[in-house]
Amino acid sequence: MSSLPWSLLSGCGPRVFLVDLAVFKPPQEWRVDQDYTHKLWRDTQRYSPEEIDFQERVYARSGLSRDRAHLPPWLNPQHCGNDQRTDLAAAEAEARLTMTGAVQALLDKTGLRPSDIDILVTTCSIYCPTPSLASLLVNAFGMRPDVQSYSLGGMGCANGVVAVNLLADLLKARPNCNALFVTTEATTPAYYRGNDRSRLVTNLLFRTGAAAVLLSNKPRLAARAKYALRQCVRVHTGASAEAYGAIHYSPDASGLNGIFLGKNVVAEASRGLALALRRVAPHVLTWGQLAEAVAAEVRGKMGRGQCGKREASGGGKSGSGGEEKQAPPTAAAMEARAGGSPPPSPSSSRCTSPASSGGVSPPPRRSPSSSSSSPSYRPNFQQSTVRHFLLHAGGAKVLDGLGEALQLDEGRLGPSRAVLRDYGNVSSSSTWYALAHVETEAGVRAGERLMQVGVGSGMKSGVNVWQALRDVREVHPAWAHLLSPEQRQRLGRQVDVSHALRHMMGRLMLALALTALALVLGAAGLRA
């Protein structure tokens, strides 16, 4: 089936290009050996046997490799035992190493200089120092005094996706600019020293990582850019007390700070994501899928209309007292009523037009009888115009929920599961690691679309849709271990590094031209 006319349906105004990206690869000695860690806990009685068993069960189902994800030496039990450091100096050291590492790799790839950056946006949820992380990068790289910098904090895992909306707005307001977006989550201040199970989980999932992304609206960069931003949708359901309290950084009963993860995290994330998907679906579904959605909507309205007429005429089933007999509730309905089941997942929401889905309230819940008479349309995003999916790797259950909502098979979930396996939950950087994985292992063909999905505290949900402007296949160092030496050598020869060379050659030619012009003007002045 044919795809939609993107030029008519793009929702982000003037074109925003993703020129390139780089993700940080931590040193190999930072790898966490979970078997060693559990043995250390038992030998030193760091936790009670019940607490150790709980953490082992959680880790076994987490989706993380037992020996690949990374933590800095002052948190890694193989280096520090049970004597973790969480002071500000250690937090700054982690943030500085990861963020500058990602930015330097990006500058090396693109051939740009720090002075070429017009807009700088950083995001880190827990670690928000003074001076800011944006100031740290301005100082580290000697950026221009007029660089427009913003340091975002407290916005959680979703902000690697959601903040693209802010960057797009900034680029709309400032033509002919380059924007640098740097994402990380410093694990040092987020480490939890207590025994509250709702906070211990984050020690098992969150790991070190960072990403640097170059966005631009400069027309001259269009030819070398990888992707164009086609859709950017963000949703915030924080007006709900349940959503607002699902994730928070706070002290436990003993006064020890940690990230609290409520049991309703996946349910609340699903409700927010449902709203975002309803708004983006009309722009990525095929014409056939849109026709199915319209037909389902018409059938639903007709069914509800007929039901209303029967009720008005008293045609419903009634007992001796003339009252309508309701069908006995199902076991699932009873569990939901008692709080044992989450709210409806995003996969059950109708696909509607942007105009009818622009609110922030969740889709209305239906009784079992009404949903069976007029089932809502459930779009299969794997059959849509989107080819690649970059999902927040928050945990195995999170990815299972996202995959179910989008109706994706394991092949489409593969890049995000690989991020979780090899790097853990790297918070706002996770979807960028997934993009680097896609570019390394599968590659992206010109014209293909990629959907970037983020969820996080607040609760916030974001969906970005990108379209490849050219064929993209390169070996990112963070994923080189997935390829054989022969593949790395072959792809290394195919990587287009001419952009950086052309950029430097252009600077050289401009300098020579200006020098020649100065000499000509000087000679003319002497003759005069």
UniProtKB/TrEMBL annotation:
* GO cellular component assignments: membrane
What this protein is called in its record is 3-ketoacyl-CoA synthase
Please provide the record's keywords in A-Z order.
Acyltransferase, Membrane, Transferase, Transmembrane, Transmembrane helix
- Spans annotated as Disordered: 299-380
- The organism named in the record is Edaphochlamys debaryana
Q: Part of which pathway?
A: Lipid metabolism; fatty acid biosynthesis
GO MF annotation terms? acyltransferase activity, transferring groups other than amino-acyl groups
Is-annotated flag, keyword Transferase? yes
